[in-house]
Amino acid sequence: MTGPNPLLIRHEEALELFGDRVHTVRDDQWDAPTPCADWAVRDLVNHLVSEQLWVPAMVRDGATVEAVGDVFDGDVLGTDPVAAWDTSAHASCAAFAAPGALDRTVHLSFGDTTAAFYCAQMVTDLAVHAWDLSRAIGADERLPGDLLEFTVREVTPYVADLAKTGLFAAPVEPPPGADVQTKLLCLLGREP
């Protein structure tokens, strides 16, 4: 008998971390700036909700980016951003946790890959954006140790290419004596 899948554990942990932050956003904070250029808190949460909405289509249904089209573009939060988050996070978690799901092929914008690779990317994005959201709303910015270690391992092999995508700012020099989290955030263009 095998134990729980470590990737699914990290995915659930990342969803919970980001979700905890979403649940603490005050009504007067939805328009607050975030470390992500041009994104307010609502934009950041909308981005993550949209990403979670893609998961069932890509993993469970085997859809292509072209087939999904612009269904998840624009405002997917509606009048209740917290409920939108909860619904999308639950759907994402269920899609990745389905039997055999991580072994499936998904058709991403850059080509076909395993659902496990896609899930690992989602974990990383959730973790980093949990820090962004924490910074924006004044919440605890520390990433849990296992999630931080996973994110560092995941990002390190392709960190040099991230700034080229336009989705991340160029890396910044970490301060002397920086801890692992600070170094990771600096690699991803954040200034902790």
From TrEMBL:
Family matches, as InterPro entries: CHP03086, DinB/YfiT-like, Maleyloyr_isom, MDMPI_metal-binding
Gene Ontology MF terms in the entry: metal ion binding
Pfam families the UniProt entry points to: MDMPI_N
Gene3D superfamilies reported for this sequence: dinb family like domain (1.20.120.450)
Domain of life (superkingdom): Bacteria
Mycothiol-dependent maleylpyruvate isomerase metal-binding domain segment(s): 14-133
Protein name per the record: TIGR03086 family metal-binding protein
Provenance organism: Streptomyces sp. R41
